Amino acid sequence: MPETFLNDATPRWLLGQIASFIALGLFIAGFASKDDRKLLLILMAANTAVVAQFALLGSWVASAMTGIVILRILLARHYHGNYPVMISLLLLTIIAACFTWQGWSDAPALIAGLLGTIAMFLFHGIVLRWWLFTAAFFWVLSNLVAGAIGGIIAEALVMIMNLVTIWRLRKDAQQHPSL
């Protein structure tokens, strides 16, 4: 069966899968970090690979949402808590979805984009990671729709890594209440 599966795969599909596995490695490195700044920088690199993955697999809403994710990460680092910037990105997310919408199977990518924007602009630490955990669930659904094998694994691992990092942050807070 694997031989047939690979024989039927197009070069474009194979490149999409390679991009998703590159993103997988970067996501693991980012979410293992307890440093929010380092997390955001690594997420930008990982999401660049995801933009390519979704474009190669023909999932245009997910690709557009992920492109906005990169912009969001850049802006959130400098404008955290800035409501006008956050609302502008939320509107950009909705507009991009309107232009690339192919059907209700695109809804998980839109939801993930909206949740991630709110998370990055309003939260830190544990709460940030819970919101990103929820967004990752919707990205899992988007990857299922696109058929991105590495993307499914990547987002499932992002969810697990978020849970582990939440546990680590809680443990640190219990050991050092002043943090």
From TrEMBL:
Keywords: Membrane, Transmembrane, Transmembrane helix
Organism superkingdom: Bacteria
Transmembrane segments: 12-32, 83-102, 109-131, 137-164
Keyword presence, RNA-binding: no
InterPro entries named in the record: Uncharacterised_HI1736/YgjV (IPR019629), YgjV (IPR026267)
One Pfam family from the record: Imp-YgjV
Name of the protein in its database record: Membrane protein
